[in-house]
Amino acid sequence: MQNLNRATMEYLMQNLSAGMSLVEVRNLCERFMLENGADSFWYYDVGAFVFSGEETTLSISGKDYTTADRRICENDLLTVDLSPQVQRIWGDYARTIVIEAGKVVVHPEDIRHPEWKRGLRMEDHLHHVLTEAATEAMTFEELYFFMNEEITKQGFVNLDYLGNLGHSIVQDKQDRIYIEKGNGTKLSDVKMFTFEPHICLPGSLYGFKQEDIYYFEKGKLKRL
């Protein structure tokens, strides 16, 4: 499912352009996933959560989500969060996409908007810090405090409406446990977990998100 997510995001970036509605973006993603291996969507039957512009700072539960009646601008920021499944095996993947002069900027170093470039670089940085710092003995709570401290140190804000940074991968969404305060479960006690910092600069209109699934192999944290 993660390979499907990567393929879906690549397909989307090849077909995105200014003027498309967010509903079109969602439908494009969901249709591609269903045609290429997914049998359904595990997160409240929504396969692609799509936000643009100032709405990229919104953090809401999937049960409250509706796709906004908006169109992509010539210069815009888009966050897409995918949740396909097949036979209750999940994929969970999110990226922030930059559109400048009506087209997707494929390479982050080519982004002209300084804040957007900084936001995407920070997401890469946080995921790198995670892979270097996380250990099998670390608890979800310890990771929560460690990564939130790093977010603050780098001058950003955690936008998640519950304050968490990810969750375990299970077969029933009600069984998820979170990277949050008070969770004493060790990271190695779950098979896999997501890391999905949703961040912005203080007071900014623009939010950034990058989500991947991680697991331990021979004591080393790996990205699925």
Automatic annotation (TrEMBL):
Peptidase M24 domain mapped to chain residues: 3-215
SUPFAM superfamilies: Creatinase/aminopeptidase (SSF55920)
Highest taxon of the lineage: Bacteria
Matches recorded under InterPro entries: Creatinase/aminopeptidase-like, Pept_M24, Peptidase_M24B
Name of the protein described by the UniProt record: M24 family metallopeptidase
Naturally occurring in which organism (per UniProt): Holdemania filiformis
